[in-house]
Structure formats: C-alpha cells, structure tokens
Amino acid sequence: MLEVLNLGNNQIHDTFPLWLGALSQLRVLILRSNQFHGPIILPQINQSFPMLQIIDLSSNSFMGGLPSNMFENWKAMIDEDKSQSFLHRTLYGPREPQYYQDTVTVMIKGLDRELTKILSIFTIVDVSNNYFQGDIPKSIGILKSLHLLNMLHNSFTGQIPTSLENLAMLESLDLSQNNISGEIPWQLTKLTFLSVLNLSQNHLVGSIPQSKQFLTFTNESFQENPRLCRPPLSKKCKDAEGSPSSAQSERKYDWELMWIGFGVGYGAGVGMLFWTLALWRKGRREFYIFVDGMLALIFTSMAFSK
After folding, report:
1. Which of 80, 200, 257, 286 could form a disulfide with 176 if both were Cys (CB 3.0 to 4.6 A apart)?
2. Contact yes or no for 92/161 (Cβ under 8 A)
3. Could you give the 3-state DSSP secondary structure of residue 132?
4. Across 48-189, where does the E strand assignment appear?
5. What is the pTM assigned to this prediction?
6. CB neighbourhood size of 186 (10 A)
C-alpha cells in the first residue's frame, strides 16, 4: 500500500531499483542526490509504476538512453481525462482538495522547492544532472497529464521531439545544457499552459517561433545557441550564418538558377537552329546532306553487324 517513497539526499550506491515498479500504489518516488548509476534497462513488456505521478532521479550518475517503453505504463500521467475531472471536482465540487500528507523537495521552475503537501494531481518527471544520452524518446508525448519535465544537464542529442505538443498540461520544460540540435518545433506553441521554458546551452538553429507562449519568454530561455535567431534574441535570422534554413535556401536558389540557365540555353540553341534552317537556304541544304549521311552510315553499320 506504499504511496510515497523518499530516499533523496543519501549515499545510496546502486543501480535503478526496477523492482519498485511492482508497488502498484506507489505515486511518489524520490531518488535525487544519491550515487545511483548505470543505465535504466526495462523489460520489453513493461508493467512498472502504474500509479506513479512524481519521479525524481536528479543528481545521480545514471547513464545511457531513456528506454522508449519507460513511460508506457505510467497510467496516472497518461490519463488526461482522469486528472482534469479530478481537478474539476477539486475546484468546483463539495470535496476538499486531496493531498498526500508528506514533504518532499523537488526542482520546480529552476529552483529547489519543498512541497509540504503534495497535491494528488501534480505530476513531475525530473532526470536532470545525470549522464543520460541519445535521443529524447518520442513516447514521452503520451504523458498528457505531465506538469513539469526537467532534463537539465545531460548529454541528450538529436532533435526536440514534436510529440511534446501532446503534453497539454505542461507548465515547465527544461532541456538546457544538453547537445540537442535542429530547429525548435513550432508544435511547442500549442502548449498554452507553458510558463517556464529553458532551451539554453544546446546546438539549436533557425528561427524561434513567434507566437503564443513563446512571445513571453526571455533571452535566458534561448541563450548560448549560436545559430538560433529572432526575438527575444538580438540576432536576426540573416545574421545566423550557416543555419540549415539559410543553407537550404541557398542550395534551392542554386538549383533554380541552374535549371533556368539550362532552359535558356536549350531554347536559344533550338531557336538558332530553326532560324538557320528557315532563312539560310545553303545552310539548310548542307544540314540535310549531313543528316542523310549520318543516317546512311548508321544503317550501313547495322547491316554489316548482322
């Protein structure tokens, strides 16, 4: 019946305790600031942590990639309708808000916060300050009830998955201090509850989306991405040398010029030939003699080859 397990700020030296996933009522798991290490390896059929709503693995030495099936059984974070209906009852119904009577410290919006009573609809995934690498799993987009996602200070690569657009309840997203590349997906503008965003210190390129929530974020959300442009950064996109968008445009322009030149040259050649045959009688006669000679040579060669 265990619902809250807080082992944070100890000196536990171990790999990820996968067997805790058998606790069918576990909702809060805090392993932050220990000496946990190694990769997180889950079985192909994952049935772990079905009721989990807060998981904090921050400030350890976990490594490797996040398993793509890690989130598939976290039903309490997946069931958006359940969370919204409970929130509606909490705000408008006759019942008092439901809390877990416990105290944990988690990182919220860049700062360590102590939650003296944990609201039962609050959901957090914090894997910051580890050595995770590889792509951010697209499957994280199924956690439709997730409120806070913190992946700060790892070694994630690849692009920001567009599946994050499905995290409709997300309020805080921190992907800073990684090796993420590519452009910022415009789909992130659909996150209307997003109030804190940090994408700084990556390798992002191209234009910052200029709509909805993105207009409220400051320079600090995007700094130290040298090839990123548009407000709130001072760099204009035409100054972002070598960005994929500009390079792609230049290549497209070069191909267009090549085809235009080919078309003009072909048209000019056909036109010159037409006017030569139409207006120059002697040239037309010589051309016909040349064509007849070539055809005779071809047919003669075909005959001897048989």
Report:
1. 200
2. no
3. strand
4. 54-56, 61-64, 99-100, 104-108, 111-115, 118-119, 124-126, 131-135, 148-150, 155-157, 172-174, 181-182
5. 0.70
6. 14
Express each pLDDT in 89-147 by its tens digit: 444 444 444 445 455 666 555 556 665 555 556 789 999 999 999 999 999 999 999 99
| Residue 155 near residue 180 (C-beta atoms within 8 A) | no
User: What's the pLDDT tens digit per position in 281-293?
Assistant: 666 566 666 666 6
Q: Which helix (H) or strand (E) holds 89?
A: helix 80-92
**CB proximity list for 131: less than 8 A, separation 6 or greater:** 61, 62, 63, 154, 155
- Count Cβ atoms below 10 Å from residue 306 Cβ, excluding itself: 4
DSSP 234: S
Cα–Cα distances (Å) from 305 to 81, 300, 301, in that order, read: 81, 9, 6
Q: What b-and-e string marks burial along 197-212, b requiring 16 or more CB atoms within 10 Å of the CB?
A: bbbbbbebbbbbbeee
